[in-house]
Structure formats: C-alpha cells, structure tokens
Specification:
This protein is α/β, with parallel strands linked by helices. Helix content is 37%, strand content 19%. The protein is built from twelve helices and 17 strands. The chain has helices spanning 3-13, 46-49, 58-68, 81-94, 105-124, 143-148, 173-179, 203-216, 286-299, 302-320, 344-353, 375-390, and strands at 25-29, 32-35, 40-43, 98-102, 130-134, 165-168, 184-189, 192-193, 199-200, 219-223, 247-250, 261-265, 325-331, 334-339, 356-357, 359-361, 364-367. Helix 3 (58-68) packs antiparallel against helix 9 (286-299), helix 4 packs parallel to helix 9 (286-299) and helix 10 (302-320) packs parallel to helix 12 (375-390). The longest helix is centred in the first third of the chain and has 20 residues, at 105-124. It is globular. The chain binds pyridoxal-5'-phosphate (PLP). Pyridoxal-5'-phosphate (PLP) is lined by residues 104-106, 109, 138-140, 190, 194-195, 223, 225-226, 251-252. Pyridoxal-5'-phosphate is lined by residues 104-106, 109, 138-140, 190, 194-195, 223, 225-226, 251-252.
Length: 391
C-alpha cells in the first residue's frame, strides 16, 4: 500500500481519536525510523517514551522470538516463571516489596487507586477514600484515571466520573496541606509531569509531601509510567528525590515496545490486594514478562544509567546553546524546552519535513529519545532543530 491508501483506509475505518501527522512509519533500526516512502527520521519520541532500547534491538527481538516459540499467553491461574523472575528484578531494583502486572499505564494507575482505597478502608473503615492529585497531571484515559487527571479539559464528557478526587497545585505544599482532610487516603503524583509540559517537581516540595504523607498514613503514589525504567537516568525517578513511595506505577518503557504495566507496592501495601480483589486476563503473560525481563536486565546496569545521564546532560547543553531555545529542563533523557519565536506545533511540523520526530507537551516541546541514542544522532537532531527554529 502507498501512503494515501493507508491514510484513506484509516480515516474510513478507524475512530478518529487522534489528529494524526501525515506519515506512516514502517520500520526502524536503533534511533532511525523509515516511513512507508523510505524517508528516514531521527526518532526523539520512542513512541512516547516506550522504545527505550531503540528499534529492532536484538535483545528484544531475541526475547520475543524465543518466548513466541514456547508460550505466548497463559492465565494467572497457574504459576509462571517469567512473571516471578521479572517481579523479583523489579522488587530488588526498587526496594519495594511486591508487584502486580497489567498491560498499560492507565491500568497500573487503576490498580494503584484500588490498592490505596482498600488499604484505607481495611484500616479506617469507610469514608477515608479521597485521593489528591496534581493540576496538569495525566494518569490515563479510563473513567477513573481521567478523574485522577487534574485537567478540566479532560472532564468535559463521559459523566458521571469516579468520585473522590481532589486537585492541588504542583510545587505548592501549602495548597496540598489545605486540601488534606480526614477523608484523604492517598496523594498521587508524577515526579515529572510528562503530558502536562515536562514540569519537574521540586525536591523540597516532594520531600515535604513525603513527610506529611507518612505522618498522616496517607499513601504516596508515584505515577512513574513515563519517568520509570531508566528514562531519567535512574531506574526510578523517585531515587532523585530520596523518597520511597508507597505505590509506584510503571508501563511505557517497561516492555521496550511490548505492552506491559506494573504496580509496585511497599511494605505498607504489599498485602492489601487479596485473592479475587483484583485481576487481569492478559497482565503478566509469559511473553510480556520475557521481554520486560530482558529490558530491565539491560537498563538497570550501572554503566547504562550513567550513559543516559551523560547523554541527557549533553543534549540539554547543546539545546541550551540554540538561539531562541529557552527553559531547557528535565532529567536524564526526559527533556522539555520552549522556543520563543515559534509555536511548538509549528516546530514539530517543520521537524517532520526535516527528518526529525519530536513531541509536544502542552505548549512546550518534549524529547523522549531511545535511551540508546548515539552522540552523533544527538548532534544531527540538534542541528536540524537549530535549522528549523532559526532559518
Ligand atoms: C502515558 C501515561 C499514562 C497512561 O498510560 P497508557 O499506557 O496510555 O494507559 C499514565 N500516566 C502517565 C504519567 C503517562 O505518561
């Protein structure tokens, strides 16, 4: 099929939930993508923070091939080695206690919300079920995770929403304090708000929030769906903040492109979910766990994490030197910036013309390159950005 065939077939038969850009990606190798016409792009998107080991990485290809020959799916009614092995790796890497596997970020957050409410109900009886989340947050597209998402624009349709969510300002401890009541059971945060515009939470704010939550036995849920699995040059972004959340959710990078999500629980909440209180058909299937296991082995290496840190610094420094680029921010290879002479979406569109894929987040630009990006691809990408912004 040529591009216009794909486009017209898509527009005829798919629900129009996305305003798509006019390209169709066919294949990729490392940090390079090829569209259906053979045009090459440098990928600074990783399919929105997913393909952390780049495209067609042999580590992932081999894991998929080997497992596909054995067993794709099996129910959670039986024990599974891949699941157990991956659970141990994630627990040891995070200092948490137990894992529940699912298939996506929204599902991981749904799980976290259920755990928080059950923990509180088990201990304090009913009416202690409110969850505070932050304005401009993004926690998913299900009815409950949309409720958790602190953006009015997301609450326009689909009423009635799940009750019990309260929104507070990011980086404003007094605002959170004023919203905590006897009914609060959890606070849910992204340590770096991804979709909200790459808003990095301040260390003092997070540490104070952590103390406050521990004092009041309010659970701190870290939505690390975008920040987790080495994206910020630590296995988990919470390591930058010297805290251990009560619940951590993961998805995007965990399977390196294969769908999988996870909820990690600390000692406090490790036994909250009991038989029949939660479940999933596909979650933790042998295929997803085999791939995620291979990804985790690779990205949790000390040298790998150090490289992500170095490349992140390098990319941020180069970007900061580009004329009209301002507010370069982020950690590791999760980077946001603004441009003071153009709209973000115009920069993005001109980048596509010039063989570079980047992301927007609200009115900012966002870069989530594969964590294995080479220095020469970083150089080329910044060169294209400079050309797009300043010519
Ligand atoms: C992407 C994202 C989600 C939703 O993940 P899905 O897999 O699309 O359901 C939730 N939280 C954060 C922080 C995200 O970036």
């Amino acid at each position: 099929m040529n591009f216009s065939d794909v486009k017209s077939l898509s527009n005829q038969y798919l629900m129009s939930t996305y305003n798509k850009f006019d390209i169709s990606i066919e294949k990729g190798k490392d940090c390079t993508l090829y569209d259906i016409n053979g045009k090459e792009y440098i990928d600074l998107t990783s399919g929105i923070g997913v393909n952390c080991l780049g495209h067609s990485n042999p580590i992932i290809v081999d894991a998929v091939k080997n497992q596909a020959q054995k067993l794709l799916h099996m129910s959670n009614l039986y024990y599974n080695e891949n699941q157990a092995v991956l659970a141990e790796k994630l627990v040891k890497a995070s200092n948490m206690k137990r894992v529940f596997f699912c298939n996506s970020g929204a599902e991981a957050n749904e799980g976290a919300i259920k755990i928080a409410r059950k923990y509180s109900t088990d201990k304090y009886k009913k009416d202690r079920t409110d969850i505070i989340s932050l304005k401009m947050s993004f926690h998913g597209r299900t009815i409950t995770t949309l409720s958790a998402t602190g953006q009015d624009a997301m609450h326009e349709y689909f009423h009635p929403f799940t009750q019990g969510f309260v929104y507070s300002k990011a980086n404003d401890i007094d605002d959170i304090k004023s919203k905590i009541t006897d009914k609060t059971c959890a606070v849910m945060i992204e340590l770096i708000q991804g979709e909200g515009g790459v808003v990095v939470l301040e260390k003092d704010f997070v540490k104070e929030l952590y103390e406050l939550c521990s004092q009041k036995d309010i659970l701190l849920i870290a939505d690390e769906v975008q920040t987790g699995i080495a994206r910020t040059a630590k296995m988990f972004c919470f390591e930058h903040y010297d805290i251990i959340p009560d619940i951590v959710t993961l998805a995007k990078g965990l399977g390196g492109g294969f769908p999988i999500g996870a909820v990690l629980c600390s000692q406090k909440t490790e036994n909250t979910l009991t038989a029949s209180t939660h479940g999933t058909t596909f979650g933790g299937n042998p295929m997803a766990c085999a791939v995620a296991s291979a990804v985790v082995d690779e990205v949790c290496k000390k040298e790998f994490l150090e490289e992500v840190e170095k490349k992140g610094q390098y990319l941020k420094e180069k970007l900061s030197k580009v004329k009209n680029v301002i507010n370069v921010r982020g950690k590791g290879l999760m980077i946001g910036f603004d441009v003071n002479n153009m709209k973000a979406i115009d920069v993005l569109n001109k980048c596509i013309e010039n063989n570079l894929l980047i992301l927007t987040a609200k009115n900012s630009l966002r870069l989530l390159p594969p964590l294995v990006i080479s220095y020469s691809d970083i150089d080329k990408a910044v060169c294209i950005l400079d050309k797009v912004i300043n010519n």
